[in-house]
Write a structure and sequence with these properties.
single chain, 345 residues, mainly beta, Jelly Rolls, Immunoglobulin-like, 3 domains, six-stranded mixed β-sheet, five-stranded mixed β-sheet, 26 strands, 9% helix, elongated
């Protein structure tokens, strides 16, 4: 069965909970594209967004093997996907979990493909003639070319000359070089395929360190240039945060476990750029400077915030405002005195 859809948005999200459904590809040119029905047990794939998984130890994606390859062409560029990798090793004698795409090239040019910002140690291969290295010819391999980020990037980025009238098969995967060798199941990945001869985005304002109050919220933000197709993916300690796909990240109801190093991957159809890391600290009871202990220094923070009625240029003043009325005053002193006397060292 073949379905033809006219897409009116830059990205389309489809969820499968069982049965046969129509899957859609991203089309930024509002044109007609060929859609193949897919059958998936219980996965959610987001094109141009983030990944969520529902139930089961591992859900095979629709393009788990070559037979389920997803086809796209120049009219669909720039092309961006965020989705889960596979559950089985489809390339014999190689410990890889992978998915497959096919690009039907209509315009000769230099194209950039990357998986920057994916989770795990990823790679990509481009084949001509057929899908996969059995029957196909390996044109180029990408591994570890993405720069920036933390931990150090182990994702691929390649630029390659492709020719009009030729189909190219693309294998995206992840692997593990050390025992037990088997990579994580349904590992989230990002796949960007550029229009020819364009530039990746440029970050113009980096996220900065922030101190948030226990139970409150903290905000991290980034600014970037790179056209209307710029997308964002926030990460904590190098791991994708589901649904954190805007220029601003707001962490609500802060807990101690929310503390850590955050960065963001900014992408467009031409490539990806990594921000620097920003540290989020969570200040707990009376520990206004978030150093893990309550000392005379925290008392000094309270006095400073109280003297300026909460308007001192200190992020910690919001934490000293225990009754959340916008002021650090005598009404807050009672709560602080109890916490301080219990916890001071």
């Amino acid at each position: 069965m073949t379905t033809w859809l006219l897409l009116a948005r830059a990205s389309v999200r489809e969820t499968w909970f069982g049965g046969e459904h129509t899957a859609t590809l991203e089309n930024r040119n509002n044109g007609m594209i060929n859609i193949r029905p897919w059958f998936v047990m219980s996965a959610c794939i987001v094109f141009g967004g983030s990944i969520e998984l529902f139930g089961g130890d591992c859900t095979p994606p629709p393009n788990e093997d070559c037979d389920g390859q997803i086809a796209f062409s120049n009219e669909d560029l720039p092309f961006e996907v965020v989705a889960p990798l596979g559950c089985t090793n489809n390339m014999v004698d190689r410990p890889y979990f992978d998915v497959f795409y096919r690009f039907d090239c209509d315009v000769t040019g230099d194209y950039t493909l990357d998986m920057c910002g994916s989770t795990g140690d990823t790679y990509l291969r481009v084949y001509t003639g057929a899908c996969g290295w059995v029957g196909g010819d390996e044109l180029i391999v990408g591994d570890d070319e993405c720069g920036g980020g933390s931990p150090p990037q182990v994702d691929p980025q390649v630029t390659v000359r492709l020719f009009a009238g030729t189909s190219y098969w693309i294998e995206l995967g992840t692997w593990r070089a050390s025992p037990p060798f088997i990579p994580p199941l349904n590992s989230p990945y990002r796949f960007n395929f550029s229009t020819p001869n364009c530039a990746p985005p440029e970050i113009t304002s980096e996220p900065t360190d922030v101190v948030g109050c226990l139970g409150g919220q903290a905000m991290l933000s980034v600014a970037a240039e790179g056209g209307e197709t710029v997308s964002y993916q926030w990460r904590k300690f190098g791991v994708i945060i589901p649904d954190a796909v805007s220029a601003t990240l707001i962490v609500e109801n802060l807990e101690p476990g929310d503390a850590g190093d955050y960065d963001v991957v900014v992408s467009n159809g031409c490539g990806s750029e990594f921000s620097g890391e920003a540290m989020l600290e969570v200040a707990t009871r009376a520990d206004f400077n978030a150093d893990g202990v309550v000392t005379i220094e925290d008392y000094g923070v309270f006095v400073t915030c109280s003297a300026f009625n909460g308007e001192a240029d200190l992020q910690q003043c919001g934490c000293a405002d225990s009754d959340r009325d916008g002021d650090v005053d005598f009404a807050d002193f009672g709560a602080f005195q109890i916490d301080y006397s219990e916890l001071v060292r």
